[in-house]
Design a protein that fits this description.
Blueprint (H helix, E strand, L loop, with lengths): L1 H13 L1 H17 L12 E7 L4 H12 L3 E6 L3 H9 L5 E5 L3 H6 L7 E4 L4 H29 L4 H8 L16 H27 L3 H4 L5 H30 L8 H26 L2 H18 L11 H8 L2 H13 L9 H29 L1
Parallel strand pairs: 1-2, 1-3
Antiparallel strand pairs: 3-4
Helix pairs in contact: 1-2, 1-10, 2-8, 2-10, 6-7, 8-10, 8-11, 8-12, 8-14, 10-11, 10-15, 11-14, 11-15, 14-15
């Protein structure tokens, strides 16, 4: 088994395709993949302002919107058609229309609705614009109502409570900045590790294998030796992705290294064994690369972070259980980012061990069959 492990490690370093995927690609992805998300959250999304009222109140409301962190007034235009042209030209991403008689209606205590047209073709931009303008409108409306009640000789404290009877304080747990990188990157790192390991192991299983040709090792020892070699490799790559990169990019980290390694162990074993199974089934390096390239996107959607697992059909939920990353993302993100104890991730942890055993037995069976066919 140890001899097989040594030979497999030598093959990883000497075979260019395997070295490119397992080591070179790991370095390139680590350097490039997180870069687009470093801004964490969208800020100052530019929108057009059409102020049909032109009063102090409308200008004050527009200044408040422009001062918010989410939205900025990119242009003040005289009418809606000219604002629409800017949006259709993708120069701006929304239109805020302040109607005529905005101030008069406010002073008379009547509703004075403002209109917001936001570009929903990019949902992140849409949510920023609608959330930012809605928050400003709610605060501004409450202040106007409070001032109106105070002018009617209502006690200021009572007036403030009447205009905003249920103030809400939101606290974003585990993601203080409310950022996209904090949400996405920990799960994406697990998916990247899986894809690189699957393709690398698949290539190693299909490329010429002179070192093991005359080996006296049995099928079980061969599979275990290879799995040990992949564990040795991932003992270097995996901590870099799950501990060092989150530290470098200021992603919240509440879990210790030991518990992260405990959940990662069955993940690496199950992914490696699955790669060996696919390599034994297809036996062609190009086919293995095409298969894993084709199923990369389905693996992403089955993982449950781009679309909730609970919202998937039952058949897809069961299918997702066969993919190691689906359980690994739940387990590893929970223990590393959320600080969960091992008892809280018992289900994904045991699922990963079951997959490691299942794919490992399949790999041994296919190795036995392959040896018999050669004899």
């Amino acid at each position: 088994m140890l001899a097989t492990c040594r030979i497999e490690l030598q093959r990883i370093l000497s075979l260019r395709p395997a070295f490119s995927v397992l080591i070179l690609a790991a370095c390139i992805y680590a350097a490039l993949y997180p870069q687009p998300y470093r801004g964490e959250a969208l800020r100052d999304v530019p929108i057009a302002l059409v102020d049909l009222d032109g009063t102090d109140s409308s200008r004050q409301f527009a200044r408040r919107v422009d001062a918010s962190a989410d939205v900025s007034i990119g242009a003040e235009l005289p009418d809606e058609p000219s604002a629409e042209r800017e949006v259709f030209g993708r120069q701006l991403y929304g239109i805020l229309v302040i109607p005529k008689y905005f101030e008069r209606d406010l002073l008379h205590g009547r509703p004075s609705p403002v209109a917001l047209y936001a570009d929903a073709s990019y949902f992140l931009i849409y949510s920023r614009i609608s959330g930012g303008v809605s928050a400003v409108a709610k605060t501004f409306g409450a202040e106007v109502e409070t001032a109106r009640l105070v002018a009617m000789h209502v006690d200021p404290a009572v007036a403030a409570a009447a205009s905003d009877p249920m103030p809400l304080t939101t606290v974003p747990l585990f993601n203080p900045q409310g950022g996209y990188a904090t949400y996405l990157l920990p799960a994406a790192f697990v998916l990247l590790l899986q894809q690189m390991l699957l393709i690398g192991v698949g290539l190693l299983g299909t490329l010429r294998n002179d070192g093991l040709a005359g080996s006296p090792a049995g099928a079980l020892a061969t599979v275990l030796g290879k799995l040990l070699a992949y564990l040795v490799l991932e003992a270097v790559v995996l901590p870099f992705y799950l501990i060092v990169l989150p530290y470098l990019y200021d992603i919240p980290r509440l879990g210790g290294p030991l518990i992260i390694f405990a959940v990662s162990l069955p993940f690496v074993l199950s992914v490696s064994a699955l790669g060996m199974v696919v390599a034994a089934l297809f036996r062609n390096p190009l086919t293995v690369q095409l298969v894993f390239a084709a199923i990369g996107i389905p693996f992403l959607f089955l993982a449950g972070f781009s679309w909730p697992t609970e919202a998937m059909p039952k058949a897809l939920q069961y299918l997702a259980l066969l993919v190691p990353s689906s359980s690994a993302i739940n387990g590893i993100v929970s223990v590393s980012q959320l600080g969960a104890p091992l008892s809280d991730v018992r289900t994904p942890f045991l699922t990963l061990w079951a997959l490691a055993l299942f794919y490992g037995c399949l790999a041994v069976g296919l190795e036995v069959r392959m040896r018999r066919s050669h004899h």
